[in-house]
């Protein structure tokens, strides 16, 4: 998974095998190790959820983009390249983009 954070935007790009894993398991994660300890890293996750909208959760060292089941199914089972959402918050909107990476 490629992760890009810039200004108030968050983008995940998944390779085809990662999209297949996401479809099969309902979740995929990427961890960036920042030190020798198992808890010394940043975790980025994409997860199917029962919510009606795309949401972003931040807990501890993990940022999770939660995707409604209907959007996840459409994205993984069709030629749909990606989906996006605008998450409203008090400090300005967060733009979220999730895409398939064919390279």
Search tags:
alpha/beta; Gyrase A, domain 2; 4-stranded mixed beta sheet; 18% helix
Detailed description of the structure:
The protein is of the alpha/beta class and 103 residues long. The chain has one domain: Gyrase A, domain 2 (2-Layer Sandwich), CATH 3.30.1360. It is built from 2 helices and 8 strands. It has helices at 16-25, 69-77; strands at residues 2-6, 9-15, 27-33, 41-49, 55-59, 62-68, 82-87, 94-101. The strands form 2 sheets. A 4-stranded mixed beta sheet has the order 1-2-8-7. A 4-stranded mixed beta sheet has the order 3-4-6-5. Strand 7 (82-87) and strand 8 form a beta hairpin. Helix 1 (16-25) packs across helix 2.
Overview in brief:
It is built from 2 helices and 8 strands; from the N terminus they run ββαββββαββ. It has 103 residues and is an alpha/beta fold. It is globular and about 40 Å long.
Overall 3D geometry?
A: globular
Instruction: Specify the CATH architecture.
Output: 2-Layer Sandwich
**What is the number of beta strands?**
8
Distance between the termini: 12 Å
The helix-strand sequence is EEHEEEEHEE
Number of domains: 1
Profile the largest sheet: 4 strands, mixed
CATH topology: Gyrase A, domain 2
User: Which parts are unreliable, with pLDDT below 50 for 5 consecutive residues or more?
Assistant: none
């Amino acid at each position: 998974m490629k992760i890009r954070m810039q200004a108030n935007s968050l983008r995940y790009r998944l390779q085809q095998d990662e999209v297949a894993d996401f479809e099969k398991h309902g979740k995929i994660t990427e961890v960036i190790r920042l030190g020798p300890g198992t808890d010394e890293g940043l975790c980025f996750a994409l997860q199917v959820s029962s919510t009606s909208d795309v949401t972003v959760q931040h807990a501890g060292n993990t940022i999770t983009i939660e995707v409604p089941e209907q959007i996840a199914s459409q994205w993984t089972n069709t030629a749909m390249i990606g989906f996006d959402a605008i998450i409203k918050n008090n400090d300005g909107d967060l733009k979220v983009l999730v895409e398939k990476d064919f390279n």
